[in-house]
Amino acid sequence: MKNLTEKKKWEIAEQLSQVMDPDTWVSYVTRAGMNRNLVEKKSTNLAQCLSVVNFAIKQDKLLNLLKQLTRDFPDTYDGLLNELETGYSDKLAKLVNNITQGNCILFLGPGVIKINEDNKEKTFNGALTEYLKNELENFAIYFDPEQQDNLTYMVQRYAKTPGFVPGQVGKEAARRFDGYRQTGQMDYGVFEKLKMIPWNLVINTNPDNILAGMQKADTYLERNYTIGNSIDDSIQNTDMDKDADDIEENGKTFFYNLFGTFKDPDSILYTESDFLAFINNVVNNAPKLHSYVTKLFDDKKHYLFIGFDFDQWYFKILAKTLKINKEERALSLNTGLKKFSECNLDFFEQEFKFYFVNDDTNKFLTELVDTYNKLVKK
What we know:
The protein is built from 16 helices and 10 strands. By secondary structure, it is α/β, with parallel strands linked by helices. The protein folds into 2 domains: 6-89; 103-115 and 184-377, no CATH class. The radius of gyration is 24 Å and the shape is globular.
């Protein structure tokens, strides 16, 4: 059983409150092998049930608790018990099965690029945000302290610095990215695991090409969506058709950088205005997304999201624009490094049937690769 979201804990507590009250919860806690005297007492029944759930999780006894409840109320708790016991493993098995069939699209978010700096592990975007914060302080330019970890906001404030020119942050980001690679500060652990799986399509919302660069020659194709793609439609369509033929005939992995690339720093999206322009361009097909990409978003596809910040508004529009399937086929890894708004998580769960997994990235990917290898060897 994976770590549960706060929302899921509340949902379980609500179900427990149907049968557990101040007169019965002590009995079930004891039967589950827990010390009832260590459970924090609450004034309301629902709050007490949530306290029991949190304590059971800390003691690794939640399944034991639900088994005791299932014995007395099988119709009420059998489904919940099965979900917690096998729900994640079933989701993982289904995901891996679709990977082997070429029916899984991998999405890479900002959280996958990590560096080691000042004896700390940081995301690349986190380190870039710290740099901008220091620059703003040096120039005595105001920024909201509560937004100092928000890269988009900090880039917008950085535009107030003396001598600022458009594209400056992209060029600085590219310079720092190359520097981290040259000094050995880049952490490739996540990418080393991801390269062990033959992905069909990788949507990269970062400007890098780390994973693509780990592929064998002639086994992949890279393309980028930028405003500069807006050329004559007939030429663009011909190029896209050639790409599709190359990918399908030669079994290549297609890497698609959606928000720009370090190869062209001016193309990287950072500000709210950048993302508004991007959404407007995509919606109006000016330029259009690569036809091979849009073609793959059919009713058979499953999706794996790694390293995303679901508090960013534009991901909601992007998911809608890409026509993400709404049949419980999207799995997203949440490492816990940032606490997302429950409102936004609830939106993706309700609107696109996302299944959120709370786990360490390397641990999850190790399990994913192991499951894939076992299936392939059968």
